[in-house]
Structure formats: C-alpha cells, structure tokens
Amino acid sequence: FALLSVIESHGSAFEQVEYVDIDDEPGLEMVVGRLVSDQVRRSLSVYTFSGGTPEQTMTANYLKFLTCDLDENGKTELMLIKPGDTDADRGVAVLYAMGESGMERSREVTLSSSADSVKRIMTSRLQSGESAVYVASSADENTVITDIFTLRDGDFSNISVILPAAQVLFAFSMRTVYFSPAMALGRNTAQPSIWA
Questions:
Q1: Which residues, in sequence order, are CB contacts of 5 under 8 Å at separation 6+?
Q2: DSSP 8-state class, residue 166
Q3: Could you give the CA distance from residue 76 to residue 23 in angstroms, rounded to a whole number?
Q4: In this structure, are residues 117 and 138 in contact, taking their beta carbons and an 8 Å threshold?
Q5: What are phi and psi of 117, to 5 degrees?
Q6: Measured between alpha carbons, how far is 33 from 10 in angstroms, rounded to an integer?
Q7: What is the model's pTM?
Q8: What residues pair up with 143 in beta bridges, in sequence order?
Q9: What is the model's pLDDT at position 11?
Q10: Cβ atoms within 10 A of the Cβ of 176, count?
Q11: pLDDT tens sequence across 21-51
C-alpha cells in the first residue's frame, strides 16, 4: 500500500465514512460525516478521486445522513436529515443527487417530528415495489412516528403525510409486529398482534 493523499478537515471525530458510486464514473466517491463541535451539528463532505487526487464536490451540515438509490439508476443519492430553523420547528429531509453540473439539492421536505428525535433510518421498498427511506422518530416515550420518503415522478416527498389515513396505518403497522414468548416457543397458535 502507498499513501495516495491526505485530506485535512476540521472536526472532533469521524461519525461515518462510506465509499459509494455517486457520479457513475469509474471509481468510488468518499462520503465523510464528522462531528465538528458540541455547538455545530455535523458536517458532511463528498470527495471524488477521478483526477487521481481527492477533490471535494460538496459540503453540508446535517444531523443524520443515509446513502441510497431512490431513483434506482445505479447512482447513489445522499439523504440528509437536518434540524428546523428553531428548536420548535420539525426537522427536514433533503436529497442530494449528481446532476449534469454537480450535486443537485432537492426541496426540503418536512419530518413529522423534530430531527433530534430520529432513532432509526433504513431503506426498504413500498408495497408497490418503489425504493423508500423509512425514518422512525420518537414522539414521546410510548409513540414512534415513521416518515416514508421516496421519489414520485422525480419529486422527493414524504408520502406518509400525503397518503390517505388507511394506507399510512398499513405502512406503519406492517413494520411493527409483536410476538408473545409462548408463540416463539410454538405453544400458541394465535396470530401475532399488529400495532399502529
């Protein structure tokens, strides 16, 4: 192994580093998330190595981020969760994708709760087969709210706030299934409980 380059940046710790294909060119890009300080949330940088040396293609502040391929074109997008403008505001999600002139930013899409309450982010599929990002947040100590983000006709949106109530309930309940210990041991033939 030989040292290719040194990338210097500010921060107190690395939170997450991923190597992904963002631009569909040969080689992977490096996505670096780092803690900057206690007062500043986090800072994300994307580096490309297409010229043989690292070149920073974007930076953004975030609270949480996820790499995904919502449009299923083989290129990775970055979904960032950011806090609202004030402590009372709900958080927002933003999707970044490589466009013809560099990284392009979607509109900000509102979460159902504050960005600080986000507990889990994961990619999965909708019942229709489309890729989606599920963001679970705690509303209080007994309630979890799940926002579902996807691309619809190229528009990044939170479909859990625009779906009819019956479909939202189904989207939430299909993810939360509780089994009793007796069922796990095969002592009970009752169906699992599904909670919304």
A1: 53, 54
A2: H
A3: 8
A4: yes
A5: -90, 0
A6: 11
A7: 0.77
A8: 140
A9: 77
A10: 13
A11: 998 888 899 999 999 877 667 999 999 987 7
